[in-house]
Design goal:
The complex is a heterodimer of chains A (196) and B (262). In chain A, 56% of the residues lie in helices and 17% in strands. Chain A has helices spanning 2-21, 25-41, 46-60, 63-70, 80-102, 164-177, 183-195, and strands spanning 110-117, 122-129, 138-145, 153-159, 162-163. Chain A has a five-stranded antiparallel β-sheet. In chain A, a hairpin with a 4-residue loop joins strand 1 and strand 2. In chain A, helix 2 runs antiparallel to helix 3. The longest helix of chain A has 23 residues, at 80-102. Chain A is globular, with a radius of gyration of 20 Å. The N and C termini of chain A lie far apart (71 Å). Chain B is mostly helical. Chain B has 14 helices and two strands, in the order H-H-H-H-H-H-H-E-E-H-H-H-H-H-H-H. Chain B has helices at residues 2-19, 25-31, 42-67, 72-96, 100-115, 124-127, 138-144, 163-169, 178-183, 193-210, 212-221, 225-242, 247-250, 254-258; strands spanning 152-155, 159-162. Chain B has a two-stranded antiparallel sheet. Classes of the chains: A alpha+beta (196), B mainly alpha (262). The A-B interface holds A 62, 64-65, 68-69, 72, 97, 100-101, 104, 116, 118, 121-122, 124, 133-136, 139, 141, 143, 145, 147-148, 151, 153, 155, 158-163, 166-167, 169-175, 189-190, 193 and B 34-35, 68, 72, 210, 212-214, 217, 220-224, 226-228, 230-232, 235-236, 239, 244-245, 247-248, 250-251, 253, 255-257, 259-262.
């Protein structure tokens, strides 16, 4: 009887514990947005904002995953050393591009409106960027990678139905195409972007 | 005039039904997949793109930057009346796509907004609970009936398009756009050519103003601005053809599934 009770207790305890650590993708997005929004509203310099945004991005975005998605089929032909170099260069490029884009906004108001689970790896979270005098309301969907439910990560932003990751992927493909599919050319372009 | 429209509708129906009788969502998605659309005239396209960038810097950007400073009600009114005019192309295309109920709704929207909404300045139909308005054009109708996009094109002044959409847009000048008929073709004496052309220019300025920051941001942060614009344009076209903004319906997820980093 004691053994049975102990077993039941253990199962209940573990299921509660496991569930309590998983983070719902919509809550994750809203809290990330709130963090970024609070930061953008702070009275600090643009460079300070950029540095703090980079910290948020490192914690909440799957930069490595986006990098390899962006590379398309080319990722299959890279050796380990090239993959490592690409991952480093992409992270620098991504953080610079992402943070300088966001730093232009002040106090963006984003409301999470719902979510749609695609499969165990992905959930799409729907949100609205509220209208201002200068621009209309914008619909933003977030592709959240949920393979590890305790640590969901952003993999794509889909603005009014247009995927940023997909755009970046086609942009990288164009750079490779116009340079005979030479990965070194892409490395050079990424390096130059990050330096400027 | 009515005779001409009927002839065009019958011809278009015959043409599209002979070309390919398919409206299967998956096939539509595949046919209009941005990465599958070839850039056959890349040199010409890049030259046009450069011309358009020049025109943007000299004309559209400065005008849009002034326009966006106007009070919100003015901008909303302009945007509403341009949307209202576009119903004149949307309704025939709702019919061509077999969306008869939607054609009725959009025709009703046009009548209400033109009259009660003071020439379309006010979107009264939306206040009355009409379905959200989505523009349709002859390129979308051809796509829905299975016509592929052909090559990607960038036209001077007019911007990005595809071979299918360029050919389809000619329908506007052969009776398919009532606004063109009553202005440029002078079927009535109430409007002039300048009314049509100024509505098109205003539409361009309105689009540029709405996307002012996004385009600036995109240009500044792109490794290849031409490729970015091409990708965004073709993604936008794809979702308009599918009449969906749902990611699950407009995106092929297979590439995402292969990425494992956790």
């Amino acid at each position: 009887m004691i053994k049975k009770n102990l077993l039941v207790f253990s199962i209940v305890f573990f299921s509660i514990t496991l569930n309590s650590f998983s983070i719902e993708p919509d809550i994750f997005v809203q809290s990330t947005v709130n963090r970024a929004s609070k930061l953008l509203g702070e009275d600090i310099t643009k460079n300070e904002k950029i540095e703090k945004l980079k910290v948020i991005a490192k914690e909440t975005v799957d930069i490595k995953g986006i990098g390899f998605y962006t590379l398309g089929k080319k990722r299959k032909s890279l050796n380990e050393q090239e993959k490592k170099r690409y991952a480093e260069l992409f992270e620098e490029y991504f953080l610079k591009s992402f943070s300088s884009r966001l730093a232009e906004y002040t106090n963006p108001e984003i409301d999470v409106q719902g979510k749609e689970r695609l499969n165990e790896n992905y959930t799409i979270v729907n949100s609205i960027l509220k209208a201002t005098n200068e621009r209309p309301e914008i619909k933003i969907d977030w592709r959240i990678y949920t393979k590890n439910p305790e640590n969901p990560l952003i993999r794509d932003l889909i603005i009014e139905g247009l995927s940023l990751a997909r755009t970046q992927k086609e942009e990288f493909a164009s750079v490779l195409n116009s340079n005979n599919d030479d990965i070194e050319a892409l490395f050079k372009v990424l390096e130059e972007f990050s330096k400027n | 005039m009515i005779k001409k429209i009927i002839v065009i509708i019958i011809t278009t129906f015959t043409l599209v039904s002979n070309l390919h009788a398919s409206s299967d969502g998956e096939l539509l998605l595949k046919k209009n997949e941005p990465s599958e659309i070839k850039d056959c005239s890349e040199t010409f396209n890049k030259a046009s793109f450069a011309i358009n960038q020049g025109l943007d810097k000299v004309i559209f950007k400065p005008v849009a930057s002034v326009y966006r400073l106007m009070p919100s009600p003015v901008k909303t009114g302009v945007s509403n009346s341009l949307n209202n005019l576009s119903n004149l192309v949307t309704v025939p295309n709702n019919l061509l796509q077999g969306e008869f109920a939607l054609a009725g709704i959009n025709a009703g929207r046009f009548v209400i907004n033109t009259t009660v909404g003071i020439l379309g300045l006010l979107d009264v139909a939306s206040y009355l609970g009409f379905e959200e308005y989505t523009k349709e054009d002859y390129g979308q109708s051809l796509a829905v009936h299975g016509v592929g996009p052909g090559c990607y094109l960038v036209l001077p002044v007019l911007g990005p398009t595809t071979a299918r959409d360029t050919i389809a847009s000619l329908a506007n000048f052969f009776g398919g756009d009532a606004w063109y008929n009553v202005t440029v073709k002078n079927d009535t004496h109430y409007f002039r050519d300048v009314d049509y052309y100024s509505s098109k220019v205003t539409s361009g300025v309105d689009f540029r103003a709405k996307n002012f920051d996004s385009l600036e941001n995109l240009e500044k942060n792109s490794l290849d601005f031409y490729a970015s614009v091409k990708s965004l344009y073709l993604q936008d076209r794809q979702q308009k053809i599918l009449n969906s903004q749902k990611v699950v319906e407009t995106q092929d997820d297979s590439d995402w599934e292969e990425i494992e980093t956790q």
